Amino acid sequence: MKGERPVTDTKPYTPKDTKFWQVTLSLALASFFIFASMYAVQPLFPVFVEEYDIGISAASLSLSFTIIGLIAGLIILGFFSDRHGRTVFMKAAVAGATIPFLIIPWTDSFVLLLLFRFIQGMALAGLPAAALAYLNEEMDRQSVHVATALYISSNALGGMAGRVLAGAVTDFFSWQTYFYILGAIGTTMFLLMLWLLPNSRFFEPSDLSFGHDLRAFSYHLKNPTLLLIFGLGIVFQTSFTGVWTFLPFHLQEEPFSLSLGSISLFYFAYGLGVVGSPLAGWFAGHFELPRVRIAGILLLCTGIFMMLSTSLWIVSLGLGLICLGFFTAHSLTASSVGELVSHHKGSASSLYLVSYYIGVVTGSSMLEPLYERWGWQGLMSFLAVLPLLYIAIVSTVTSSQKKAPE
């Protein structure tokens, strides 16, 4: 017997089942920790610059290496998830993300810190590589959007908490203490997953070679509908990350002149992402998913346009709309991937997440020339129009294909 085997005499979990909420809670907690771990170093860049006597670009590698490890892990672990089961990799992801937090504080080498962050990135990829496929396999089709939305809303909560707490704990103690705290949290989350998360019942392992799986990746990449979904992930994340990357520079200047400590409080806007994802799942169950996704895109773009204001209240409201719209659109897009394929769901989900994190790299590392040339106003205008332009092009192409004679 290979990995988890399907059980044919049971039905998918529904909200009436206790295990539906066990699955939802355990994956939400794991997601919280994974994303807190991923972004925990972002507020610590100035500390690393001073402590290790390095430049800002070098300090930012503590996040970039994690993202690179994550992308590699999504591809590799997506393969293994399709053949050896879902739960083993999700549990291992939490354990693998925890251990580096207990080791890094003992080293004085920034190179070793980067190495462990890369390893950590590969390890934590086990959760997102398998979680969406697991939910689509184990949950009732009418209820999976709710569970997926709660899982993704925990992404937002974890990312927010990881950033906000990093500054607070480091100010009062040290970044090493913060890493130990994350290690303790990770250990707790791992034990909860062992207790709460049920084994797969409907997983069907692939007995095919890795070469076949690579061809399956290629097959997904030849699917026009999936390509549009992957492109959507890149566009969403580019606009979203672009705002947050350059916001501190903007708010430090006139007319705001805010300190970095004050600017860090704006990360609480991520809390609206916690609300937006479950609401998106509820609305998708009552209305058509594409319509709810379009509404999320419009909220995202409206919020970015509000960044052009010189009023701090309008900027604050705009950041809330950005998070609400982004996590609404993202949660529904992510959940739709599993419904568009019948085989190699782990690989398809991994490809979507790879595109999503390509957007992170694009939004954080490739927009500086636009910012230097056009300034804040030009960059925000570009980021607001980008999702609208993409949707318009996709709609035009799709409409043309439907009208084309056979």
UniProtKB/TrEMBL annotation:
It is a multi-pass membrane protein. The keyword Secreted does not apply. Residues 23-402 form the Major facilitator superfamily (MFS) profile domain. Keywords: Cell membrane, Membrane, Transmembrane, Transmembrane helix, Transport. The chain crosses the membrane at residues 20-41, 61-81, 88-106, 112-135, 147-166, 178-197, 225-247, 267-285, 297-329, 349-367, 379-398. One of its GO terms (cellular component) is plasma membrane. It is found in: Cell membrane. Its main location: membrane. One of its GO terms (molecular function) is transmembrane transporter activity. PANTHER family: BLL2771 PROTEIN, INNER MEMBRANE TRANSPORT PROTEIN YNFM. Belongs to the major facilitator superfamily. This is MFS transporter, YNFM family, putative membrane transport protein. It comes from Salimicrobium halophilum.
